[in-house]
Amino acid sequence: MTSSLIAVNVGVFAALVWLARSPSAVVSVPSDVLRWLGGNHALWTIADSRIETLVTSVFLHGSLLHLGFNLLVLWQVGPFLERAVGPARFLPLYVGAGIAGSACSAIWGRFVGPALSVGASGAVCGLIGAVLVLGIRTQGWKGPLAKQMGAWLGFLLLFGLAKNLQGGYVQVDNAAHVGGALAGLVIAASWKRGYVYKAGTARAVVAATIGLVLASGAVVYVRDRTDPYLFLDHQERLKVAMEALRAGRCDRARTAVQRAIRMDPGNPGVQRLRVDIEQECLEMELLERPRRAGS
Fold it and tell me: Last residue of some domain: 178, 201, 226?
């Protein structure tokens, strides 16, 4: 599983660079490419209920350095944990911790300030948290394994905090780190010691986890091509609503303003525009009724 995850992450990054159509994407993948392939951004993830991006964003990386650092930690921690608990626990833990990290990032971004979040760091922190639990169970709090994993988590969190305080274009998503680590701790703590999956059950668990990832990617693909409002912010959605109203397309105007409200529910200007659109559309509909009756 560890080798497969590394291969998948490398393959996805190669696809990102190819889609960007620029060698500079190796250093920094354009944000629109990351969003198109399922990046996690609070503005869209929460407002448009893009739950699938909580999964797909775990397999996206913004640069070769970003990818390399995450895969280095995965290679250091993953094989040991996989041998200890088996693939049927390892893979769901990786994906589950990644989802938890993405969810924490989206929630944090909704209140503090939305930003595009991608990467396997939440999943990797979940693996570290799980190894920490195993170390405590087998060696105690003061055992070498618990100390090593505690040091890893401390380094990742302090590095992220220092980098964010320093400022600059590249920021570290500490919310994803914390969410992934907590998920790893909770999931590993729920494992029953000595319990071993039957071979058929193990294959079914792994297949279901892979199916979840593939299904999330399929949802991203479909929504990218069918939702006309998907990558519009609330101002752009309001513009669509006004243009539709001037064209007499009330259904489209109502849909666009509702999608704008979901993105910025506390904006009084958006609420007023919704009322104005509703009033104008009602007037249009009242004028249309006699014409329809006469025809």
Answer: 226
